[in-house]
Amino acid sequence: MLYHIVTYGCQMNVHESEKIANVLEELNYQPTENREDADIIVFNTCAIREGAENRAFGNIGALKQQKKRNKNLIIVVCGCMTQQKDVQEKIFKTFPFVDIVIGTHNLYNLKTLISRKITDRKRIKEYQESGELHEELIAKRTSGDNAWVNIMYGCNNFCTYCIVPYVRGREISRKKSDILNEIKDIIATNSYKTITLLGQNVNSYGNDDKTQGTFSELLQDICNLDGDFKLTFMTSHPKDLSDEVIDVMSKNDKILKELHLPVQSGSNKILKAMNRNYTIEHYLDIVKKLRDKMPNIRLTTDIIVGFPGETEEDFNQTCELVKKVRYDGIFAFMYSKRSGTVAEKLPNQIDEDTKHNRVNYLLDLEKEIKAQKEN
Ligand code: SAH
Ligand code: SF4
Ligand code: F3S
Questions:
Q1: Residue ranges covered by each domain of the chain
Q2: Going by DSSP bridges, is the β-strand pair 172-173/152-153 parallel, antiparallel, or unpaired?
Q3: What single-letter DSSP state applies at residue 38?
């Protein structure tokens, strides 16, 4: 019996698919690269932008023929898309050949649900408003010499454009002892060069449970473990990146000198409307501190263009910021309206042409800076 997993979205989802793979192997399925050969197909979806959702819809729809050929094929749809109740209902109704549809908070139960499906054959749909920690889900690591380690789940920030807090719930930090034990096991295998800590906002680690200590303390405790490994982490929110974290980064050779620090916009007006809770002055101050202590640090960022109300002047400020920071990499996105978020209802939504032009302009600017840096 063979399984095939299709993963959309962020590193969090990539790692979650490793946990799904482990569940499937416990059920005696083996991996296949070829979707056509699979006896069970899992779609681990992303809801961050409309484009991601549409792609998943199209690809799920395309499975109808395969199901006709193989009546025993089991199709599972999970992840952030199906944590939106209306989208879950829509998938269940539109695609009668999909067998199991569950949200992010029901993933821990996947093994039971697949077994139930095999025995009584009824279609399954499960939704749970919120979730808790599930240490029993372990990963079958498939990301080469990098090992992902979740340190926390969820997000409390409610950036006004973003769906993540709605589909991933509130921040929950894992126990430091569980994180350290997982990392010790990873080191003991001698198979991984880097360990990447994962969280939507790693800098707020422990805010929900002060007994675990802070993120900078966690970093130091990991560096104190014996072994030959490199450590990195994502994602950092500029409002929470502390001086202590910068200090620990600069003092420990084990921590890679790279940081993904999403700025989203170079305009204070837009940052405020996005509910990002920092100013460009504060952001530049962090960049200065980072480079003072680590002159060769690799800085990357995320930028959204075309947020409601973004004028030419606001966009110019974003370009100015990019020129000042001279990033080593930029992920530029066109703003995508997400239902249920605050920005969905904001006036002055920007037309698609303008968004395209702005995103292309930024990509050209990035290329130019890269070329200059390489010379
Ligand atoms: N927690 C991380 C990453 C969240 S999602 C952070 O706060 O940085 C990754 C990126 O997707 C975000 O940084 C943002 O740039 C982009 N994004 C999120 N929602 C979006 C939307 N509605 N439209 C366009 N881009 C979006
Ligand atoms: Fe979304 Fe903001 Fe949370 Fe990142 S910090 S996941 S952008 S709400
Ligand atoms: Fe997408 Fe969910 Fe990640 S919405 S970006 S897969 S947390």
A1: 2-126, 153-374
A2: antiparallel
A3: -
Around ligand 3, the residues with Cβ closer than 6 Å are 9-10, 12-13, 46-48, 80, 163-164, 167-168
Q: What does the alpha-carbon distance between residue 123 and residue 248 come to, in Å, rounded to a whole number?
A: 50
The per-residue DSSP string of 268-320 comes to HHHHHHTT----HHHHHHHHHHHHHH-TT-EEEEEEEE--TT--HHHHHHHHH
What residue's CA is closest to ligand 1, atom 8?
Answer: 262
Residue with CA nearest ligand 1 atom 11: 48
Which residue type does 209 have?
D
The pTM (predicted TM-score) of the whole model is 0.96
Residue type, 4: H
pLDDT at 374: 86
Look at ligand 2, atom 1, and give the residue with the nearest C-alpha. Answer: 162
pLDDT tens-digit map of 131-174: 999 988 999 998 899 999 999 999 999 999 999 999 999 999 99
Query: If you search the block for the tokens 């192997």, which residue do you land on?
Result: 25
User: Closest ligand to 200 CA?
Assistant: 1
Tell me, using a 6 A CB cutoff, whether residue 200 lines ligand 2.
yes
Q: Is 365 exposed, middle or buried (0-12, 13-18, 19+ CB in 10 A)?
A: middle
> In the CATH scheme, what is the homologous superfamily, with its name and number, of domain 2-126?
Methylthiotransferase, N-terminal domain (3.40.50.12160)
How many Å apart are CA 310 and CA 319, to the nearest integer? 13
Residue 362 is which amino acid?
L
CATH number of 153-374: 3.80.30.20
What is the 179 CA–ligand 3 centroid distance (Å)? 22
What separation, in Å, do the N-terminal and C-terminal C-alpha atoms of the chain show? Answer: 53
Question: Which residue CA neighbors atom 5 of ligand 2 most closely?
Answer: 157
Instruction: Give the mutation target among 12, 49, 156, 162 for probing the ligand 2 site: most ligand atoms within 8 A of CB.
Output: 162
